[in-house]
Structures are given as C-alpha cells and as structure tokens.
Known about the structure:
- The chain is built from one helix and two strands, in the order E-E-H.
- The N and C termini lie far apart (58 Å).
- It is α+β, with helices and mostly antiparallel strands.
- It has a domain at 5-46: Erythroid Transcription Factor GATA-1, Chain A.
- It has one helix spanning 30-41, and strands at residues 5-8, 15-18.
- The mean pLDDT is 83.
Amino acid sequence: MPTPKIVNCPHCGMTVEWTPENFYRPFCSERCKLIDLGAWATESYRVPVDPQDENDEGAEPGNTEEKR
C-alpha cells in the first residue's frame, strides 16, 4: 500500500494525511473547514482580477457590437 500524501491544513498549518478517510481534506478538522468557508462568505478572500479580463473576450471598451 502506498504511503499517503501529507499536506498542511490551509488554515492552521497542521499536517494532514490526504486519504479518502479524511472527510475534511485538505483541512485537518471541520472547524478549520468552516472557518475557511466563513472567510470566503464574508469576502475576506478575493480572487484577483485583471482589469483587461473584465471585458468580454478581449473586446474593445465601448464596442458592444457583435462580430458577424
């Protein structure tokens, strides 16, 4: 049987075995998992956005006509 991969809990840093038996992976516990979920829900974490990506498919600003 292969040795399970060891990862660090993203919240507290505790080492965790990456196995199917660990229902909270990559977290060490339900507590760390819920704290992380709460941080996303309150927008403490944000995914950075490149201002250029805000335009649909690289269209020029102000150009709303569809290409035919």
